[in-house]
Amino acid sequence: MEQAKVPDIRERHIVTGRYLKDIVFAANDGIITTFAVVAGTVGADLSPAVILILGFSNMFADGFSMASGNFLGTRSEKDFYRKEEQEEYREIKEIPERERQEIRDILTEKGYSGTELEQMVGLISGNEKFWVEFMMLEELKLYSPEDESPSRNAVITFTSFVVAGIIPLVPYVAFGQHASFLMACAFSGAALFTVGALRAYFSPRSAFVLGLEMLAVGGIAAAIAYGIGFILQALI
Question: pTM to 2 decimals?
Answer without folding.
Answer: 0.75
